[in-house]
Each structure stands twice: as structure tokens, then as C-alpha cells.
């Protein structure tokens, strides 16, 4: 395929990133099958991947050997073979390395891969592919890490992350800005959308590991207060990773950063690659108001699970807090266009950043990404209305603000307050800038009489919904004052 593309174009014409990822994803189960049998493939490269109709197959198993084989010859190809094979032999990690190198060759003209970059990747700043797809670059960095311990632990683990990267690549290349579907992560829950803000509490939570030895015990643990839960967890039959992570969750809720620090330190001492502990450290840093430390933690997690959106959303939140707004906006955009589950939280983040730059049109476009099927849709429409109301863009913006929430279920009192603001500003507009009878806010023409009638109606509605008598009387007085004069 590569040679055909090159002959057709007259130059090196790599396979598009999404196709190359799909090809390798298709064949990764074959690697996992071999590894489960105690075998390693050894000599993977583009020559050994064949397309048969709609299927991809792994061929040429002449170099396959047992993982514990210390005597037979090792087959490999310069530029693909892992650097440690010569003195450590072949392992699952060395197969992972060859898969990563093959991906690079499929997707770009990898000059020097058998010389200058025989055991490294070209620098990202000078490599357009890596600049365009940051998650893909991080996936390749992990797969082709110099140390075997830093690579993916299995072909299945790599496949899960590669699927996530493929979704991002497809979403980015499609370029609509709107996610067309949702995907369920094995590692993270969905973001909690209660408000239009984002903090350590509303970031996606870690999914419990059902294979943890204490999973059943944790499932039967009574909820109680965070302090009571910490006390119960201190009596766990064994200090497994899930017990320690649950202790971190309870400690965060209890405002006990010292407990989180102790638990994560213990976890990382036992396993330096336990990225879930680093995730918890990032949450503590956010809770303590240290976005720089949170950035460092979430960036490290992103490198370990590059196909997951949760670390990108968390990193965007931390970057927003530290003032690195361009980075935050790009990360929010990646989340919004890739997975509908992440669109609301990411869209609100983009709107905050753009609104802070006085880019009201851009902020409105971000809020418009939240689909009507989302439970955050009403919240997005209300934020849209608030933004347009404050924009100072005249009657057209006020008309859009009113239309934003026209068919949305809102708290009646909040809706009445919003209507009062919109029509009060509409009245000010027509008084100072002239009537615009051709324009309407809702059913009301943009005239002095039209705005007065709308404002009066809204104030009386708000008065009916106001429980405090003094406030209610004041609103009725305002309604009487707003009422247009009539002659009889």
C-alpha cells in the first residue's frame, strides 16, 4: 500500500493517521493471543501486515519464539527492534516497541529511523504529524520508550488507548467541532455536570477496579460521612490499591490532604507507574489552589493513558487556573469534539476562556456545542442567554438571549429574573438608541411601548414568585412605574 501510494504521487505518501491506527488496532488481538501463549512475535514491521479484503492479518511467523527461550536465534529488523533486545532478549515490551515503530513508518516519512533515530522519535516541534496529533505523539512516546518498563504492559492495554486516540484523530480531522457520539471509558467515569464551572469535584472519577482483592469488601462498606469512611477504611483487611484510592477519595471530601499524600506516596513506592496515585495528587493540588502542581500531575497521567479524555479535561482545568489559556482552550476543544459525554464540561470551559477575552461570538459558539439531548442543555442555554444579555450588542443580542431559553425548562423565578433583565436592557436600548419596530424580543416589538409592556409583565410575574412581602411590594411598584401610560 505504501509503495502504491508513492508510485501514484511520485513522492513518499504516508497512510493517513486514522487508517494506520485502524490497521494496527485490527491486528493487536493477534499479538495478545501470542503473548497469552507465552510467545513473542519479535520481527514486526509493515511487511508483516497484510490486507485481505476487509481484514488485516499478521503473517510470517518465522521469528516467533517463546518468551523464556534463551538459546534460539532472535530475528529482528534494524529500526524496528527494541534497543534492549541485544542484551536482554525479547519480551512483550519489545513487541510493543516494534508496533509503535511500525505505526510511525506507516504514518510519516520517518527519515533516519535506522540511523539517527534508531532508538528515538524525531522531535515534535519539527514533525508536523506530532504537532497535529498530540495524543498520538504521546501514544508513540509510550510505546517506543527507551526503557521497557515505561511502555504499555500489554497489547490489550495499548489497543484500548489506541482506540481512544483514533477517536480523537477522526474527530479532529472531521473538523465540525461537535461530537457525534459517546464512548464509555474503562478507566474513568463521565464528568459530573451540576454547574457551568469545573473543579476537582466535578472532574471524572476513577472507575473502581473489580479485580482488586478487596473489591467485595469495599462494595459492602457503608457510606457514612467522609471521616467515618476514613475510619472504616483504616480497618481494611489488606491495603490494596483500591483501598488506598478509596481512602484518597474520602480524604479529599474530608479536606485531609495529608492522608492523600501518605496514601499516594505508599502506592508510588510500591509501583512507580501507578498513574492513579498521580491523578489523586492532581486533585489534591486543585483542591489546595495549586494549579501548577495539578498541571504537572495531570500531564503525567495524560502521558500514561494518552487515549483517555479525562486527563485532558483535568489538564485543561489546571491550565485555565494557571493562566495558560491557549493550551486550556485547545484541550477543551479536543474533549468537546471527541465525546458527547465530555462536550458540556469542555464547552463551558471554552466559553469561559473566550468570554474572558471578550469574544462573545466565540463563547456563544462554544455553548452551542452542547446538544439538546444533554442534561446540561438547559444550563448551557441559560449561560448563553446571560452572555448575550451582558454583551452590550443591542436589541439583536437581547432577542437571541430571550430565544435561547424560550423552550427550555428553567426555575420559574430564575426565568422571571432573566426576562426582567432582558426587557429592562431592551427598554434602555430603545430609549437611548431609538426604536426598532422591525425587531422583536420574543413577541414584543423593540419600541418604548413594547418594552415597557414586556417589562411590566415580567416584573409582575417575578413578584408573584417572590415569597418576601417587602420584595414583592417593591417589584409591583417597579411594574407600575414601567407600565406605559394610556389615555382614556
Listing every helix as H and every strand as E from the N terminus to the C terminus, the arrangement reads: HHEEEEHHHHHHHHHHHHHHHHHHEEHH
What gap, in angstroms, lies between the N and C termini? Answer: 87 Å
Count of alpha/pi helices: 22
- Low-pLDDT stretches: none
Our Rg estimate from Cα atoms comes to 29 Å
Helix amount: 55-70%
- The averaged pLDDT comes out at 94
Which structural class matches the secondary elements? mainly alpha
User: What composes the largest sheet?
Assistant: 2 strands, antiparallel
Shape: elongated
**Strands side by side in the biggest sheet:** 1-4
- How much of the sequence lies in strands comes to under 5%
Number of strands: 6
What are its keywords?
single chain; 488 residues; two-stranded antiparallel sheet; two-stranded antiparallel ribbon; 22 helices; 57% helix
Outline the structure in words:
The protein is mainly alpha-helical. The chain contains 22 helices and 6 strands. Strands 1-4 form a two-stranded antiparallel ribbon. A hairpin with a 2-residue loop joins strand 5 and strand 6. The chain is elongated, with a radius of gyration of 29 Å. The N and C termini lie far apart (87 Å). The mean pLDDT is 94.
Amino acid at each position: 500500500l505504501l509503495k502504491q501510494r508513492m508510485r501514484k504521487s511520485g513522492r513518499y505518501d504516508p497512510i493517513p493517521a486514522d487508517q494506520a491506527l485502524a490497521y494496527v488496532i485490527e491486528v493487536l488481538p493477534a499479538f495478545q493471543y501470542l503473548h497469552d501463549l507465552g510467545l513473542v512475535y519479535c520481527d514486526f514491521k509493515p511487511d508483516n501486515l497484510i490486507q485481505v479484503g476487509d481484514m488485516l492479518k499478521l503473517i510470517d511467523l518465522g521469528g516467533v519464539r517463546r518468551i523464556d527461550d534463551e538459546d534460539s536465534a532472535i530475528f529482528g529488523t534494524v529500526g524496528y527492534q527494541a534497543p534492549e533486545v541485544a542484551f536482554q532478549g525479547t519480551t512483550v515490551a519489545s513487541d510493543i516497541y516494534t508496533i509503535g515503530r511500525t505505526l510511525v513508518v506507516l504514518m510519516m516519512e520517518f527519515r533516519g529511523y535506522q540511523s539517527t533515530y534508531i532508538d528515538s522519535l524525531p522531535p515534535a516541534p519539527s514533525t508536523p504529524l506530532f504537532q497535529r496529533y498530540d495524543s498520538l505523539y504521546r501514544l508513540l512516546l509510550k510505546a517506543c520508550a527507551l526503557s521497557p518498563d515505561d511502555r504499555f504492559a500489554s497489547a490489550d492495554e495499548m489497543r484500548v488507548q489506541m482506540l481512544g486516540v483514533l477517536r480523537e484523530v477522526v474527530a479532529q480531522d472531521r473538523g465540525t467541532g461537535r461530537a457525534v457520539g459517546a464512548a464509555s471509558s474503562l478507566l474513568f467515569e463521565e464528568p459530573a455536570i451540576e454547574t457551568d464551572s469545573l473543579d476537582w469535584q466535578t472532574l471524572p472519577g476513577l472507575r473502581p477496579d473489580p479485580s482488586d482483592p478487596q473489591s467485595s469488601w469495599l462494595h459492602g462498606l457503608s457510606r457514612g460521612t467522609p471521616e467515618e469512611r476514613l475510619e472504616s477504611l483504616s480497618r481494611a483487611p489488606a491495603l490494596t490499591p483500591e483501598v488506598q484510592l478509596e481512602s484518597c477519595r474520602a480524604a479529599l471530601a474530608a479536606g485531609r490532604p495529608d492522608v492523600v499524600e501518605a496514601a499516594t506516596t505508599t502506592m508510588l513506592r510500591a509501583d512507580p507507574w501507578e498513574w492513579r496515585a498521580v491523578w489523586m495528587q492532581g486533585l489534591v493540588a486543585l483542591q489546595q489552589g495549586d494549579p501548577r502542581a495539578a498541571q504537572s500531575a495531570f500531564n503525567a497521567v495524560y502521558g500514561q493513558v494518552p487515549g483517555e479524555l479525562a486527563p485532558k479535561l483535568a489538564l485543561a482545568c489546571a491550565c485555565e487556573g494557571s493562566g495558560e489559556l491557549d493550551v486550556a482552550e485547545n484541550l477543551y476543544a479536543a474533549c468537546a469534539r471527541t465525546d458527547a459525554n465530555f462536550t458540556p464540561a469542555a464547552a463551558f470551559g471554552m466559553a469561559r476562556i473566550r468570554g474572558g477575552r471578550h469574544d462573545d461570538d466565540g463563547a456563544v459558539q462554544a455553548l452551542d456545542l452542547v446538544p439538546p439531548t444533554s442534561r446540561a442543555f438547559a444550563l448551557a442555554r441559560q449561560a448563553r442567554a446571560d452572555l448575550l444579555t451582558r454583551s452590550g450588542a443591542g436589541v439583536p443580542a437581547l432577542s437571541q438571549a430571550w430565544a435561547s431559553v424560550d423552550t427550555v425548562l428553567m426555575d420559574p423565578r430564575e426565568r422571571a429574573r432573566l426576562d426582567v433583565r432582558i426587557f429592562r436592557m431592551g427598554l434602555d436600548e430603545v430609549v437611548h438608541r431609538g426604536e426598532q419596530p422591525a425587531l422583536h424580543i420574543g413577541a414584543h416589538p423593540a419600541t418604548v411601548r413594547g418594552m415597557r409592556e414586556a417589562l411590566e409583565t415580567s416584573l409582575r410575574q417575578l413578584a408573584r414568585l417572590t415569597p418576601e412581602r417587602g420584595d414583592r411590594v417593591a417589584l409591583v411598584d417597579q411594574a407600575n412605574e414601567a407600565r406605559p401610560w394610556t389615555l382614556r
